[in-house]
């Protein structure tokens, strides 16, 4: 690799991307001419580097410097820029962030950019909107494929300049992700003809504005709406023939979802029971996720008839007023089932009734159950001395993996677990995780290396859960089944 001395070594302090000075101008620095490879191959290699590594390579190589000015993937956040209090010195990290991003984008040629992600974590005010407008003006040009703008500050107010997407400038965009800003498309803007995925989170947009945009986005395949509180009525137009995934959650004012797109096979919904759902043709539905009160009863009582071809089902409920019923209806193709019944106010629940799902899903392969509760409302197996209940034996030949998170000494939960061991002949692995097992000092996410202090009732219940496993579950485990028990950390002694 050849070298040439030109000016001073570029600054690289504390891992921070500086590039404050153009490495081709000014004082002397040691610059490498680069390996003797064709420039298009070098550019291709450079495009696969993480942004910080790509910037550092540009500081020491002429070839990579030319490539840097048309780098295809720019990802700006405090983390990717290596910003921290030590690196920023006396300047606020937010101000340094704006300075760095502004400098890099001004040096970028605007050619070859395919992906741009901007995440502003703090120090945003309305006066900073001109920075964002200029950055987007540079990026939104023919050839851009992915555009992500995430404003983290709670009070951030930014109006996304929809005019930048008009006149064909945004026709190459395939993925658009906006968070915590206003997005006001009009009929004159239309849509994005290449857009396949739209993700809006905490975005201020009305239902009519969204429909206007969707009507002109015929290639859309995934639509994700989270906490968009201006939407009252969501209408998904029929012309979205390619749409296969629809997710709507946390939209507080939403009252109606009316889907006319004919090929939606995956639907995820999180909201109140008062939302009127009209999903159109549901026989092709393969995956469903539903989070609201009463979801477990609804899933067992209603879904087999309306969505008989489901292959994956996830239900989450904070409150169930009725147990899962034992019915003749079936999920003949269901392979993955996940049920979560969690919440501070969750009443006592008969977990044994969930065995109804095993009877209804002969093709089931994996079952995950989360029953974590801060205050256990169910009667403990050690407090009720009556005989443990048994359901009729069921020979299930497909279910291989069962995981129960938040396992406690609740009697009905012990009964359900024993029923699984006695009836599921194909079972290979059973994992029982006590609520306190996730709070371990050895957890790699626990930076302090110490266990969090726990209330005495939680500690006691954790050890009662382990005792219930030893006494009532382990004797029922066949030799062909691997039992994994995640116990409370040894620090949590009673």
From TrEMBL:
Pfam families: LRR_At1g61320_AtMIF1
Domain At1g61320/AtMIF1 LRR, first and last residues per copy: 104-489
Protein name as it appears in the record: At1g61320/AtMIF1 LRR domain-containing protein
Species per Swiss-Prot/TrEMBL record: Urochloa decumbens
InterPro entries on file: At1g61320/At1g61330-like, F-box-like_dom_sf, LRR_At1g61320_AtMIF1, LRR_dom_sf
Region (Disordered) location: 1-30
Coiled coil location: none
Annotated Polar residues bias: 1-17
Lineage: Eukaryota, Viridiplantae, Streptophyta, Embryophyta, Tracheophyta
